[in-house]
Amino acid sequence: MKKVYTCFCTDVIHEGHLNIIREAQKYGEVIVGVLSDEAMVRFNRFPTVSFEQRMQMVKEIDGVSKVIVQDDVMYDRVIEQLRPDYVIHGDNWMEGAMRAIRDNVVSLLRHMGGGRQIIDVPYTYNEKVKEADDRIKAKLAMPEYRRKRIRQLLKMRHIVKAIEVHSGITGLIAEKTVVEHNGELDQFDAMWISSLCDSTAKGKPDIELVDMTSRYRTIDDVTEVTTKPIIFDGDTGGLSEHFVYTVRTLEKMGVSAVIIEDKVGLKKNSLFGTEVAQTQDTIENFCSKIAAGKRAQLTDDFMIIARIESLILEQGMDDALSRARAYVEAGADGIMIHSRKKSPEEILKFCDLFRQEDKTTPIVVVPSSFNSVTEAELSEHGVNIVIYANQLTRSAFPAMQQTAEDILRYHRAKEVDSRLLPIKDIITLIDEL
Ligand code: SPV
Ligand code: MG
Q1: CA–CA distance, 259 with 335 (Å, rounded to integer)
Q2: If residue 273 lies in a helix (H) or strand (E), which one and from where to where?
Q3: Which of 135, 316, 357, 407 has its CA 20 to 30 A from that of 340?
Q4: Which distant-in-sequence residues (6+ apart) come within 8 Å of 376 by Cβ?
Q5: CA of 321 to the centre of ligand 2 (A)
Q6: What is the pLDDT of residue 43?
Q7: Both ends of the chain: CA-CA distance in Å?
Q8: Three-state SS across 207-233?
């Protein structure tokens, strides 16, 4: 009997999947791979049910003779082991980033020879399938599901990747961008609501001037249209008496983590370093703010991450390390270490030294200045979360400015048009419910 293989990467079995199984049965014995959680989060959605439940759902489908685990997005290992005669899949993988997966299967089957083939089944688009899909998205967006996701991702990903968002549209970019590069698919895991970019989008300086009510409004705009988890830039956290309210509100909104920095007085952006007057908080005071936040927290999901400004303010490595130690002791669920040096050297050194004494507390870094460092290098030095804190804003600004200048220069918009999103695409960019 010929072997027909398909891989499922889904939380619900709907008509489309049953149709694939029915088609597959025409060719031989049907073996279904269930994509592991780790592989699923690289290009698809975060699973809303456990891996064991996903396996069970597939086992219960009539006509499936065997269920296996596929632990990589690409099929190399599974095809090598199984040597299927056919690989069957919905034809939705002929477009977008998923095309790379199909190409991978084509080349593997060709290499193996013996007339092995791909079968592309027309994807089932109908109201019921759409409804099932919408329901999963709605579930993922619910505060109780979204809030715990950073903790879940920390267990799944070598390094959790967050990108800055400050609006619905930037949220959608973080949500939907999936890229294939060198045979690997990848996407962002999380969103960073930066104080710098949230303020900049409002034409205001990054000095805690944009008040919390307005910052919450940004979170609302983002959560309305996305499902990925949020790490919120809480600036200094303000007074402890105020910070406890912030923690409660963020938890309620489904935010996963807040990062607060150990500065007091008029906060200026860290990338100014010592060029402007900035005062670091005392260890004692900052620890009591962290502890107050942890006491106020109602769920086990939420994280309070303590950001250390010692390297930014040139207070030295020892100061940074003793603060890290104290903040963890006070209850911080993670630490962020920041630097504005071009080279990642001091950041990596800090991570190495911190990891010698603390193997588990998550480390967060923001490589805006030391941007030559790769995610793999950071991960090797024990970093768990990398935040690309301002790149979306910084890429949009020059593009918009150039367009404004050119329209003034040419007294019409024709000259800029080739650089713009086509009108057809802007009117269809946002899906209606
Ligand atoms: C932000 O994005 O607002 C940050 C990171 O706090 S930095 O701008 O580097 O200080
Ligand atoms: Mg900030």
Answers
A1: 8
A2: none
A3: 357
A4: none
A5: 21
A6: 86
A7: 45
A8: CCCCCHHHHHHHHHHHHHHCCCCEEEE
Read off the DSSP letter of residue 338. -
Q: What is the pLDDT of residues 110-157, one digit of tens each?
A: 999 999 999 999 998 889 888 988 999 999 999 999 999 999 999 999
Q: Whose CA is nearest to atom 2 of ligand 1?
A: 194
| Candidates 85, 189, 206, 333; catalytic one | 206
- Which among 204, 218, 271 is the best mutation to test ligand 1's pocket, defined by most ligand atoms within 8 Å of the CB? 271
Query: Which of 180, 17, 20 lies closest to 96, judged by CA?
Result: 180
pLDDT band at residue 222 using 50, 70 and 90 as cut-offs = very high
Give the closest residue (by CA) to ligand 1 atom 10. 270
Do 262 and 281 meet the contact criterion of CB atoms below 8 Å apart? yes
d(CA 380, CA 383): 7
Sign of CA dihedral 250, 251, 253, 257: positive
Report CA torsion sign: 230, 231, 235, 240.
Answer: positive
Q: Compute, in angstroms, the gap from residue 227 CA to the centroid of ligand 1.
A: 23
Pick the more confident residue, 429 or 338. Answer: 338
Q: Mean pLDDT over residues 295-320, rounded?
A: 97
| Rounded CA separation 224/417 (Å) | 31
pLDDT in tens, 387-409: 999 999 999 999 999 999 999 99
Ligand 1 proximity of 390 Cβ (cutoff 6 Å):
yes
Closest CA to 141 of 64, 229, 241: 229
Return d(Cα 414, Cα 100) in angstroms, integer. 36
pLDDT band at 182 (very low <50, low <70, confident <90, very high): confident
The answer to whether residue 230 scores a pLDDT higher than 90 is yes
406 is catalytic: no
- For ligand 1, is residue 200 a contact (CB within 6 Å)? no
CB atoms within 10 A of CB 104: 18
* CA-based nearest residue to 69, from 122, 41, 108, 33: 33
Quick check: CB of 364 below 6 Å from ligand 1?
A: no
Q: Is 208 in the pocket of ligand 1 (CB under 6 A)?
A: no
